[in-house]
Amino acid sequence: MKVQLEVTTSCNLDCEYCFRRRNGFSDVTPDIVEKIADADEIILYGYGEPLLNPNLKEYLRTINGKTLISTNGMVNGIFDEVFEMVDRVAISLDFDARHRRGLVFEKLKEKLDLAGEKAITQIVVTSDNINFLPELVRISAESGADVQLTNVVAGDEEIYRKILYFEGSRFNVDMISDIDDRFILSAIKDWSRGKGRFKEAYKNLIGKIYSHGYSVNIPYIVESRDRIRKARHAEKIVEDSMDIAREYGIDFERAEFFGDSRARECPYEDMIFVRVDGKVSSCMSFAYTHQEFVNEHLKIVNEYVFADLKKDGIDDAFENKLEFERLRKNMDDSFPWCADCPYVSGCWYAKQNIDCYANKISCSECLYSSRIARCVV
């Protein structure tokens, strides 16, 4: 049994890509902690800074299972005690305070050196900081910390314009991106007309893609050549950074920069997310209603709550999750991958976070399932 617990929604930073600011500020209560205390593993991490909960040390003494805490590293004093009480500590690492307003790198480095091999640094990459990644990895490695890399999940179009990934499946990108644009445009035209010398070549191309189990959005790939180039460049920097990690003997959990509709899996399988108010969701993404910008469109993600630990037991919460869990065990059959769909542009279903497989809550654009985004679960 694995539980992610949102300890607080208060935070001492003001990150522009965080959804926390829409949720208010509160702390988890002792009765909720007692309900989850016997879980095998507990991750203390949500839309807030856990070290700001005044009862945190008491809660850690209550918990019996393995514990991991994720912190922004900007809280002094209590960190020295807490990191001794947990099995692992994840620290968000960056140089840039433009998007993570309130960040002071020197404070981060102090916490990192103190935690040493017990630490894992979480690095969120965008076009603003990707060129600093090798240096950040070296700083982590010199402290003995492992590294987890993630792309940003954009809450609006401004952040989206700084992403480094392309959501479409890499197989399709490799099939299409080196083909001359004039051929693609002529082939689409002939296919639409039902005749012309490019029709058969286009049919063979589409047939080969579909024979490997993929759908394809050819216009999306053609229009995204610049994004694809940036994604490949980011991959090269990541490879260089992984060499540094190997040199120091630390683990490096990379993020992907292309989707793959045939290789998705849910990182929240067999676990639950417990909100600060005791409401239980299937994952952090469905914990609160919020907006995301993905596949060149804005979408609304509605909360999905199936239990309340103020009145339900932890076993009831896991039991209530079983039906949704069944869907997520085979994601490529249960949920479409919208990035490969020719109709995603302007799709009403996608913008409401439902899909054409009749899922009223959908994982069809989940960046975590494709490992484009990673989280400490």
What descriptive keywords fit this protein?
377 residues, alpha/beta, 15 helices
Write the layout of secondary structure elements.
Elements: E1 2-5, E2 14-15, H1 30-36, E3 41-44, H2 56-62, E4 66-71, H3 78-85, E5 88-92, E6 100-101, H4 105-115, E7 119-125, H5 133-142, E8 146-151, H6 157-160, E9 166-169, H7 170-176, H8 181-193, H9 199-211, H10 218-223, H11 225-248, E10 252-253, E11 258-259, E12 271-274, E13 279-281, E14 290-294, E15 297-301, E16 305-308, H12 314-320, H13 322-328, H14 331-334, H15 348-351
Parallel strand pairs: 1-3, 1-12, 3-4, 4-5, 5-7, 7-8, 8-10, 9-11
Antiparallel strand pairs: 2-6, 12-13, 13-16, 14-15
Helix pairs in contact: 5-11, 8-9
Overall description:
The strands form 4 sheets. The protein has a 10-stranded mixed β-sheet with strand order 10-8-7-5-4-3-1-12-13-16. Strands 2-6 form a two-stranded antiparallel sheet. A two-stranded parallel ribbon has the order 9-11. The chain is built from 15 helices and 16 strands. It is globular and about 75 Å long. Helix 5 links the parallel strand 7 and strand 8. With 377 residues, the protein is of the alpha/beta class. Helix 5 packs parallel to helix 11 and helix 8 packs across helix 9.
